[in-house]
Amino acid sequence: MKNEPYKTYLDESELPQAWYNMRADMKKKPAPLLNPATLEPVTAAELERVFCKECVRQELDNDTAYIPIPEPVREFYRMYRPSPLVRALVLENALGTPDRIYYKFEGNNTSGSHKLNSAIAQAYYAKEQGLSDVTTETGAGQWGTALSMASAFFGLKCHVYMVKCSYEQKPFRREVMRTYGAEVTPSPSMSTEAGRRINAEFPGTTGSLGCAISEAVEAALKLPNARYLLGSVLNQVCLHQSVIGLETAAALEKLGEKPDVIIGCAGGGSNLSGLIAPFVGRKLRGESDCRIVAVEPASCPSLTRGRYAYDFCDTAKVCPLAKMYTLGSGFIPSASHAGGLRYHGLSPVLSELYDQKIIEATSVGQTRVFEAATLFARTEGTLPAPESAHAIRAAIDEALRCKESGKEETIVFGLTGTGYFDLKAYASYNDGTMDDTVPSDEDLEKGFAALPKMEKA
Ligand SMILES: *Cc1c(COP(=O)(O)O)cnc(C)c1O
Fold first, then answer.
1. Cβ(267) to ligand 1 under 6 A?
2. What is the 3-state secondary structure (H, E, C) of the chain?
């Protein structure tokens, strides 16, 4: 095996002081969120009914490139950051590739994923505002876990609406959240109007993220001193996640490496936005031409087969409209195992970057994803989250292509989390019963037909 450094750690003193806002360097900005009733851009005042004040300010700020990370947030970051940039030497060896493959590992905390990076920031702003409660949704459970941890840290009561199929499939995830003091409700529930309506319309439904969002927003509006926090998609979340990319860029610099390709999995788009942020900045400023690849599941292909259009963010249509690559808010993907990648749309920032061809996208089927996950576990040792394994799959495919063509590249991918709560999915792969269903064009048309008609009244 090559005798080169395996892990690159930054010192604590190198932990970023500020988040980087890609929007500041975009000539054409992402489209604004719209009020669904008036189709006018939403105002800060409207958003502040649902979201924390400072988060709204960050959401709407398209101009400030660097936003300081508050000291209490940096203190919390220090418990698990800077996270390591790891050279996948054993995997490279197994593949026989001439490439150098690096991964930024974000699973090194109890929540098991990158989601803690934004959870702690949002919980801090909620506390600063004097709130007592926060509400949220969770699909696979990682965001709910991260926010439960962050809420415990700042003494906030956390109410989590968990997509019912995950609630039933992942009882241990639920217990982690409860251990951190959160109240966890399966969604759709009967305790909100949105939940009752969805239950009545689709009896026996196992829920969706869009539906859980509707419930959590409604709950935030009904509680006396609460706001709703969201774990992905929004500009503010992408901003907080830039800590991943800033550390990655600093570590690569230490190694004297320039990435040729950066690869990340894309659900709502937060980890990918974060990982690529400084590299996108360089591309936008004409300083780099590295490739950036978003990887999505073939079962929920919002970039590769979706439409770039204004859409609802949630099932009950209570949230603002966002312009994004989307499959339609009514689209319910087949029971794919990568729970964190099942959202119908992709963050407006990433959608705009994709439309401008700054980033590219590919989709991969479930069985090939778990093949890659298994190879990664057996070589690099870490049991990856199924979501992360989408990026692993694409990185391996890239390395194999290079091996064939004799090209030598530096590949960087995001290992967003660990898969200890996803063993049902691993079991179905090991048993050979994994489902590779991909939506037909007809299935997708149904989703597109439900896109909002954008005619002003
Ligand atoms: C939530 C999650 C994702 C996908 O969410 P993004 O917002 O697209 O980053 C990916 N990996 C893990 C481990 C997750 O928990």
1. yes
2. CCCCCCEECCCHHHCCCEEECHHHHCCCCCCCCECCCCCCECCHHHHHCCCCHHHHHHHHCCCCCEEECCHHHHHHHCCCCCCCEEECHHHHHHHCCCCEEEEEECCCCCCCECCHHHHHHHHHHHHHCCCCEEEEEECCCHHHHHHHHHHHHHCCEEEEEEEHHHHHHCHHHHHHHHHCCCEEEEECCCCCHHHHHHHHHCCCCCCCHHHHHHHHHHHHHHCCCEEECCCCCCHHHHHHHHHHHHHHHHHHHHHCCCCCEEEEECCCCHHHHHHHHHHHHHHHCCCCCCEEEEEEECCCCCCCCCEEEEEECCCCCCCCEEEEEECCCCCCCCCCCCHHHCCCECCHHHHHHHHCCCCEEEEECHHHHHHHHHHHHHHHCCCECHHHHHHHHHHHHHHHHHHHHCCCCEEEEEECEECCCCHHHHHHHHCCCCCCCCCCHHHHHHHHHCCCCCCCC
